[in-house]
Amino acid sequence: MHLFIKLVAATTVTLTLVGTAFVIAAEPAPGEPTPAAVPAGESAATPADPAAVVVKINGVAISRAELDRTMRPLLAKFGSADALSPEQMALVEETAKENLIRTELLYQLAMKQDIPDLEKQVEEQLAIIKSRSASEEEWNDALADNGITLDELREQLKRAILINAFVENDVLPKIQITDAQLQAFYDEHPEAFSKPESMRASHILIGVDAGAGAEEKEKAKRKADEVLAQVKSGADFAELAKSVSTCPSAEQGGDLGEFGRGQMVAPFEDAAFGLDVDAVSEVVETQFGYHIIKATGKSAAEVVPFEEVKERIEKQLKAQDLQQQVMAQVEELRTTSVIELPDRNQ
Prior knowledge:
This protein folds into two domains: 3-179 and 320-344, Porin chaperone SurA, peptide-binding domain (Triger factor/SurA peptide-binding fold); 197-300, Chitinase A, domain 3. It is 46% helix and 16% strand. It is built from ten helices and eleven strands. It is elongated. The chain starts with a strand and ends in a 6-residue tail after the last strand.
């Protein structure tokens, strides 16, 4: 399925397109100020009747309970609703309300899809979600904690399956990405396909605590010099690492895997990248202690060939086009829809 239901924390339903950036929901503008503390005695949220209607879309009523549920993942970004000022809480509420309007309009576009085994698919999706709970009690607690009933969850799943069918049948067939578009994207974004210089190395670390005195450091340095002498005399580097290195990589014979510039502390990086493959460094001092480094592989900076990334570019462009086309249809329906906001009509 291209469009699937993802249950965040086992219960909060959101719509997402697999492998793409497709989102039907809006989020608070990035430029909004950091949440300020709410003055003592004030509340960032005003209790309201869960059954109260907050918006109607073509006659379909959305309750306060649905709005509160939609607000939860948005509020989670701030850590706590109590951290928001009344103005910021109002922004979150308006954002959640807009998400509900868009989602309802998208569902209204999709509700005419003919899916003979719709109820079976709903129960299959429900079973998958429920299987993530260890017990019936945990499942019921998860539903309650997230303010959603089993019937409401079934309805959410039904909507998502219908929306998926709409995307599959009415939108995706219209999306055509040409080879010329793929090549143009590749040519216009060289930085996205550049592979920086990297290398692979192993090391032996004779560790020194941050607060170690001169005598302890000197002792560690002498040990590192002795180990280096053994390496230069032909001792097996990996075996020495396993027996004397204080780094967790000792279990892998000192292997650190592949890394690029900027990933290691400067003295280590400078020494490592200055080595030829199979060469061993002198003793290198860092804040962690004394290292002996062996270069085991190097890869020069390069641009990844077009053919290697062609499929990835196509998926990205299709995802962008899909999002644009779905949102265009939602906005087109919106122009002929009746959207009522009771709180603004009072």
